Amino acid sequence: MNSLKEGFGETLTLHRLGLFEKLGRSFKTANALENVNSLLGIYTDRVDYWKTSEQRQRSVAAALLEGEPRLRKVGGTSL
Fold this sequence. Notes:
This protein is mainly alpha-helical. The protein has one domain (2-70). The protein has helices at residues 2-16, 20-27, 31-44, 53-67. The chain starts with a helix and ends in a 12-residue tail after the last helix.
């Protein structure tokens, strides 16, 4: 029930913008987020301790840039 409540606003926004038919399929699951999290894990799981928050942020940013080419495009977009 909580998951439905969390995504309700986003679902309505897609409907209001007329994008649900094109983008709804890609955003109905958490697969996109799980894919990003697994890519982050590849680059950051070996780190046991970050000295500062800034160091952690740089590591995550570098991991996202490195993993970006492996991410799939959102279905229904023409980019």
